[in-house]
Design a protein that fits this description.
With 121 residues, the chain is α+β, with helices and mostly antiparallel strands. 19% of the residues lie in helices and 42% in strands. The chain has one domain (2-120): Roll (Archaeosine Trna-guanine Transglycosylase, Chain: A, domain 4), CATH 2.30.130. The protein has a six-stranded mixed β-sheet with strand order 2-5-4-3-1-6. It is globular, with a radius of gyration of 14 Å.
Length: 121
């Protein structure tokens, strides 16, 4: 199964450059997802590629930071602010990124609005 995730364009760029090999989430999929279709949010507003998932780590926040900090692509302050008031968090480890030659619209997937968190496709 696949899911579409909204990711800020600056983080998409870091993923492309392999500066960020973890995508962090406060909540995770309930179904078995093997790949993630990337929706680059505003101002790009387009489907730009697909991530093949290597692993999904679920840990207490302090442990999650220690495991991922070298390839997080974000600062420690940003990490802790994102996970504020959450005991556990998720890090989706990126195995491979396939960029699309032509960007697609979210509507090409039958979806009217970008997901706040994720949507299955």
């Amino acid at each position: 199964m696949k899911a579409i995730l909204s990711i800020k364009p600056e983080f998409v760029e870091k993923i492309i450059k392999r500066e960020k090999i973890y995508e962090f989430r406060r909540k995770i999929f309930k179904k078995d997802v093997e790949s993630i279709i990337i929706y680059a949010s505003s101002p790009v507003k387009a489907i730009v590629g697909e991530i093949i998932i290597d692993d999904i780590i679920n840990e207490k926040i302090d442990i999650l930071w220690e495991l991922t900090k070298n390839n997080a692509g974000i600062t420690k302050n940003f990490f802790y602010e994102y996970f504020k008031n959450v005991e556990n968090g998720y890090a989706i480890k990126i195995k491979r990124l396939n960029l699309y030659e032509n960007y697609l619209s979210i509507r090409d997937f039958g979806i009217l609005y970008p997901p706040q968190s994720y949507v299955y496709v």
